[in-house]
Amino acid sequence: MTNENINKISLECDNVTKSYGVFKKTIAIRNLGIKELGGTCVSLVGPNGAGKSTILKVLSGSIRKYDGKVTVRGSVGYCPEISVNFDFMSAEENLSYFYPHNIERIKYILTRLNLNTGKKPISSFSKGMKRKLDLARSLILGSEIILMDEPFDGLDAESSKELSKIIEDLKIEGKLILITSHDLHKVENVSDKILFMKDGTIFQKLILKHLNLYRIDFTENSDVIRKKLTDLNIKIVGETELSFIIQVDEGLEICKLITKILGDDCKIVGFSRESLESIYMRELCG
Q: Ramachandran region of residue 123, left (φ > 0), alpha (ψ -120 to 50) or beta?
C-alpha cells in the first residue's frame, strides 16, 4: 500500500465523552482526543475500568450515543474481548456461517493465520487460536482499521509472539491497529504509540520510535531547569514536584546535555535513564 493510501486511513476522536445512567453520573470516557493514521499500531494501556473497551465500542459503532465527534476513514473490523463462536463448528464453518459468499477469502485468511484445522471444532482450540479466529473474522471483508480488545490477555508466550508477528504484518500492509491492554509489557513491542489511560482520560501519549527517556531529579529551582530544557528544545513528557522526565533525540550526547543544564542556579541531584513502566506506574499510582 502506498503512503498516499495509508494516509487516507485514519480515525479521530474530538472531545468525546461517554456517560451512563439516568443522570449520566457514571463517566466512562471524558473529553477524549485521538488522531491516528494507517500503518501504525496504537495501544491503549490502563487498569480495568479505565475506559479502554468503551473507546473501541464507540469507534466500532457499537455505542452510538456519546458527546463529541468521531471521524473514521476506512472500513473497521472489531475483535471484542470475549470470543463469540459456535464451539461445535470448525473455524471455516464459523466464518462461512456469517460470510457465506466469501468462501475463497475465508480460506485465504485461515491459511494466512495458520488456522487450517479442517473439521476440528472450536471447542478444542486454545485461547490463542480463538483470538486468531476473532482476528480472521475482522479481516474477511478487508478491514483497514482493526480494533482489538485485550488480544494478548491469557495467551502463552508462543501465542503472543505469533499474534505480534501478525500485527506487524498488518502494519506493513498499511492497516491501522488499535489495541487495548492492562499490561504494558504485552503490547510494548508491537506498538508505535502508547496512550496511558486512567479514569476515562488519556494522561500520557508516547511515540516509541527512537524513544529515549531520562529522569532529572533536583532539590529546587524547577523553573530555571524547565527554561533551560525549553531553550534546548528538550521535550518534558512527565514531571513530579522534584523531577522531570525528558525525551531526548537519538544521537544527542547525554554528557553534553548535562553540562548545558548544570550551573550555579541549578541544583540537580540525579540524572538517570527512565523506563516506560516507571512512568506508567508513577502516573497511575500518583
A: alpha
Question: Contact 209/270 with Cβ under 8 angstroms?
Answer: no
Q: Is the pTM of this model over 0.85?
A: no
Is residue 271 within 8 Å of 217, Cβ to Cβ?
Answer: yes
- Written as tens digits, the pLDDT of the chain (286 aa) is 555 555 689 999 999 999 988 777 889 999 999 999 999 999 999 999 999 999 999 999 999 999 999 999 999 999 988 888 899 999 999 999 989 898 999 999 999 898 988 899 999 999 889 989 999 998 888 899 999 999 998 888 888 888 999 999 999 999 999 999 988 888 988 999 999 999 999 988 888 876 778 888 888 778 888 888 888 888 887 777 888 888 887 667 777 777 777 776 777 788 888 877 877 887 777 6
Instruction: Specify the CATH number for 3-206; select among 3.40.50.300, 3.40.50.2000, 3.90.950.10, 3.40.50.2300.
Output: 3.40.50.300
Query: Within its chain, how far is the Cα of 131 from the centroid?
Result: 17
The position carrying cell 492492562 is 182
How many angstroms separate the CA atoms of 137 and 271, rounded?
Answer: 49
CATH T-level fold of 210-285 = Alpha-Beta Plaits (3.30.70)
State the cell numbers at 106.
475465508
